[in-house]
User: Fold these one by one.
Assistant:
Number 1:
Amino acid sequence: MADEKMPSAMIAWMSGKGWGAHHDQWHFERRWDFWHALAAQPGHDPDIDHIIADAVSKGWTRSSLQEGSPGNGEDFLFMHRAMFQLLNDNFPQHMHFLRGWHSPPQDPSDPEDPAPDAFNSNMKNAIKKIEANAPTLADDNAYGLFIETNWKPTPNDPLARNPDPETGIHNYAHNRWSDQDSPVNLGDPRVNIFNARFWKLHGWIDYQWWRFRRAKGFDDSAANYQSKLRFYVQMMNQDAHHEHFAEVIMELAPQKTRNVFAFDVFP
């Protein structure tokens, strides 16, 4: 099944806010050490050099919080929740496009979300743990890290991975449903927010995070929660948080996509 695009009005609104560029920048700057470590390896993929050069040309810089490091898991959850809040506020008539999967489809022949290969057994276990409210995870940050990535960088090894093979269902799903020929390739942060499957995945993640917080007894009215959510809502609701790409509605200007998640490996 070909990728389904979000409604054109939503795509135009997100493009006007520069969300594709922001989304790409946010993830790239938090993988800064990762990309540069890959580029330092002999015989590395030359696409990596192009990706880095493109980022440097835009003035992007290294984030103090790298993907997989303490603090990034919480930011990952809040940033995407802010996106949901703004889209729900501005497009209540399209709320159904923002409903997540009941559970990520694991059948390669699923009629709505088919994929070319069998579902990773470790990721199947991760889904069970997440949907059981992941009670062994301590807080929002631990929960976000578990869901987002299997990278766990150290000062001496930016390519270190989490020894837990069940981490990273988010990155795995992006990689699994990537399509280099799609103008809304799920593996390309510049355009994947225009893909309806992006919101299925992140809607599931956001709902499971709500369940996790509820099971833990965390208070959404707490000052630290409200402050962080407000920060990301304000960031995503203005259009000067980064240098824009020349973004237009995707139906009018499809671009060659890339898959940054192709460099992730899941055992």
Number 2:
Amino acid sequence: MGDIFFCALKSLFRKRLRTILTAGSITIGVIMVVIVTIISGAGKKMVNSELQSLGLSGISVTTFSSNTAEAETGIPAEGLEIIRKTKNVSTAMPLLLQFATSLIRDTRSDTIICGIDAGAVQAISLNVKHGRMITKGDVSSADNVCVVDETLAKSAYGRDNITGKTIILQINGVDFEFRVIGIAKAGSALLSNLGEFIPGMVYVPYSTLQSLTGRTKFDQVAVRVENQDEIIETENQILKRLENLTGYRDYFRVENLSRHRDRLGSVLDIVTMILTALSAISMVVSGLGIMTIMLASVNERMREIGIKKSIGASSTRIMLEFLAESVVISLIGSLSGILLGSIISAAGLSLFGQPMFFNLFDMGLIVLVSITIGAVFGVYPAVKASKLKPVDALRMD
């Protein structure tokens, strides 16, 4: 077999320019597939990371407001304690949301106030860039302190670090002054381009927001679990215990946020498959080019084939030599395509500050598919060459 590939390489080397051009058509097709594969893989990883940073990796406990006649809906403090004591729950943080208007310096903005507990970093992956987070002391004393996202800070001061400054929050028509103790990363990188449409976020101790609004229940409880494999059982336990506490049925909603993340991942996988399939069409077209070149090569080398057969070369040997040439052309084109495609992808990802995502299995699969295409489209020329009779081949000029 090694001798067959050696003869194939010698034949291809004699027609170097044609070999390079034919392999180049495979290279272009492989480059497109590699770019789609690497970029989509990196994109999916980035999306999952951003969704993780938004808290889409645990359980969200909320209520249906229409299912109770009480004036105030939400999750009671006793319910929060029950959730925290549920098996497999590592962190449970109450959330209170309030739409308001903020005034920093001379800049007034629509704002969402989020009342949180200490430990928000673990519960909802809140990233603090400057200063500090809300502490247990802030919550127990209901201090007027807050953490603002960098969007609000930059809009007022042109910089993101404004710890120590004051902010006016207008809640239900009344102005309250808060001291900025920390700056949080604005939402996520995915949403940063939508800053003009999404209100800025201000995080305050939930006890402070309760005292200013008179609310005693929580809009939501963000739950992180210790074991993801038991998350469904944990959901059922939380729902059952809350219903037993309040006596309400079909009032509490326990939602697995990681399930939404997985669904989005499935959608991204489908999109990737479609784009890869479209890119792979160019590889099939390249296979047709290989067939055309190999047929031309058979016609040019009829005398060579006749001589080989007259001195004892079998039809199988002739067929394997031509088939090996098709495979070698595909191999050269696929390896070149992977190299160039990886370089282009790395350069593109670096422009957006994203790391390179390289999967050896995917690259190996691309090479295998490329070689298979070369072999399939090289069968007909190889069979045609093997069926030539020595006398007819030698008669050709």
Number 3:
Amino acid sequence: MQTVTDQIKASMAGSSWIRKMFEKGMELKRQHGAEAVCDFSLGNPDVPPPAKTKAVLEAMASEAVKPLGLGYCPNAGIPAVREAIAAYLARQQQSPVSAGNVVMTVGAAGALVSFFRAVVAPGDEVICPSPYFVEYGSYCGHFGGVLKPVPSIADDGFRPDVAAIEAAITPKTRALLVNSPNNPTGCIYSEEDMRRLASVVDKVNAARGDEGRPLFLLSDEPYRAFAYDGATVPPVLPLTPYAVVLGSFSKTLSLAGERIGYVAVSPQMPDGATLVNAVTLTNRTLGFVNAPVIGQRLAAALLDETADLDVYDRRRKLMAKVLTDAGVDFTMPRGAFYFFPKAPGGDDLAFVDALQDELVLAVPGRGFGMAGFVRLSCSVDEKIIARSADGFKRAVAKLKA
């Protein structure tokens, strides 16, 4: 008897390489001890939340009326939180965002799933530059959507290939999804590239006319605060009326387990209120109901704070040294906390296996839609990065031999 659908069975068979390597890491740690394994497989933020977090939680717990506020809240989020997030995004996005443009969600993942449920019909396409976050295909595929990755320009720092993206658009294309700073490459898309992508969206929507189904520009931004060496992440909402920004506080505030994210619809979007209402509905009917109330209130109280991002920058520089000393070719990431170096010899599985023999865990690039590279997460202690240096050298020497 068949207990699950063919679609889910196929997804299980092609299970996330990230999860596979995480499980392999658990096995190696049992065999050799946790201190012996250098695990760069998971992007799980390990830097403590801002110091103010404890005081905020204590104040919430000591409230005289409804301590912590653990009841249901409006499906779109606590009104005061939506207002605070809107004001925060208005500054960040240089756009007149109001509470009515914002829906609080269960992380950025919940934001994407709720958005796709509202706008994607079976057979609709979602285009994204590759490499890309592995779950995108499932997020739109749950509703019959089809993810269409378009290779980025690897030799130019993984910039999006705007011409190729435009050529990939068909009448079925419903969304253009970008992720900057990017997971897994650390690339920050320039303002010029984002303007060119927005221009493509506007051109497509002009051709489709007022009676057509619009093409959306989705910007998935959980790593927005992670920009190094003076780099800036350009605002997206002003670029096109059909821009939608999705984000979370999992990384910037180290609150990944609280699952707090948001959808923000451009104030200039024609009939944007209908989209906000639709995402509010799907946020509820997908079973999320509402974003966690403690997390909402935490995020609103900590909007001017971040975890210590300098820690990630130090790790980035140390990892760059480790890779350079081992003779690994890579593009220095300008954002996020990942590296996406080339696999020596071009075989990412062979490189992952060689590293694994040295008790170093990486994720093959094919798990992100681009074979020939590997992903390394720097959300680990500097001691682990330093300890991995000899393992990288031996793995590279083994492949070259």
Number 4:
Amino acid sequence: MTEVNLAAPHIFIVAVENSSDQLGAGLMTSLRAQSPKVKISGVGGPAMSSKGLKSKFDISGLSILGFFEAVRAYPLVLRRVKETVSAIMKASPDTVVLIDSWGFMIRVSQRLKNAGYKGPIIKYVAPQVWAMREGRARVLAKSNDHVLSIHNFDAPYFEQHGLSVSHIGNPMFDTDYTAGDGRSLRSRLSCENDAPLCAVFFGSRVSEINQLQKPIAAAVDKLSLRYPNMQFVSPVADPMKDKVHDAKNSGTFRQITLVSEAEKADVFKAADVAIACSGTVTTQLASVGVPTVVIYKLKPLSWWFAKRLFKPDYISLVNISADAALMPELLQSEASGENIAAEISEFIDDSHKRQTCSDALRAEARRMKGGDGLASDKAAAQILKLIRA
């Protein structure tokens, strides 16, 4: 490590999944606003690339779900970890920011420490030790120097092991998802104003699409028969585009209109209801107040392990925060076409239930945001503060 140039600090950011890539892009914007001469290197996807990052390698293939999927991808993960550590040591940045992705990032931080890296290693988004595997807090403390937490209940789990924590709020709320143009989208889809519109979100991993495409397709078929004028639309992220379009072309999603991820806010605003794979998007939908049916499937053995490790009663963050099923959840065998269609139908047929759910989701989202200011701005300020210290 050379002496830190406080006017032009060098920050290396690592993000290897779509949601992490989005956080990285927001962080890059905030860092440049607060430190105009900052140099940013790293590993990321299309969102960070759009902000000018030249990623050290392509992150596709590193979004992994389930035990067996992880086993198959293990050689690729180890190779990319080695390449990441090598790039960091060669660049000798003032600090390293590792965003989410526990398995990948803990290996990077451990190898950095073993290689003699002296700058602060910052974990952006703490592992959810409140949900499962509390021992990860102790493991993280051995190879990381600070945690940027999105939940105000994270800190005690890590501070007891000597790892400092800053609560920055949930970055999901940095974007105003209510600002979309729903009318314009409906017009482009030739969707009448009184026709129900259902948004569909497949997930950000190939394995999620593989597990959920059949029940989603079955649900859409059933709903189309019940509501002939109902339309279905899905914003598709670039990493998943080929997979989803292949399914569309084969007839699986023949009734779903696919649009770009850039139109996601328009879809939120236009949608009356949504079907969504559990993940980041459910919190976004909550902030707009879209009544949503959450679905999720793992392979049987992965589910067997997850069920014994996971502590909360719900899997979607808005439900965990509220300690109530604001969004109905259908997991494993319950995530059938028939069940999904039944839950969506209740929202369509009962306008009072739909409005009550929408109001409750928006209220809970406001509570989850916690305070004024953008999470990415708070994260950037804390990173720069740690560098200066």
